[in-house]
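User: Please go through the entry that follows and flag anything odd:
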Amino acid sequence: MRIDSDLFLDVADALGMGNPAIVEKDYYVVLLLKLLSELSFDTHTLVFSGGTALTKSGIKTHRMSEDVDIKIIPKDLAANTSKTKRRKARKALHLQLIDAINSDDYFSVENTPTVFDEYRYQQIDIRYPQAHSKAPCLRPFIKLELIETLLFDNVQSRNISSLVNEVTQQSPEVSLMDFSSIKSTQAEKLVSMLRRTASFARDNKRDDDPALIRHIYDTYYIQQAALANVQDVHL
């Protein structure tokens, strides 16, 4: 059953937002997270990370983070697991994701997914229902990025609510999902800041890097929330 699109307008008005398309996209981002949280894989665990995870962790960054970043964490780290077997496991995960997205009532895969490094990196552009004219700051699709990596900190399990359910005081759409810790997110942002400033130092004729500005911005709000002290982060 599809949501009444007028509700996005009402919620945007209640939050003082100028465009209901932001509320609409947030709603479908959370529904995508719900879909992902209900999937299970024999070989990997999905962990929500990045800027959108930060905003859904209770840190108010006062910006729309529209991408979904997922870490795919291998369950089996046995030394005798072959490279071929690991690649097949990542490909099987990819195909299961594509099938789940295309089978959903709300979503479909927009373009041919981008895959690098034997499925260690995957980008899937996902079309979602759009009843409102999109804001200039928004893409017309949800960008789902997945990368296989190892975790060096504990995950934190949280529920996830859309702006719609927060304003209407409804239960969270996602009852439980694994998140990267705030400390890990802060560490990753510091590393990205260092890499990007080093890149600029090598060629100072480049334009300002929007990602660098975003990482600095998010770091400010992480520090304001006092949930990860920069001095405690080991790079």
About this structure: The domain at 6-180 is CATH 3.30.460 (Beta Polymerase; domain 2).
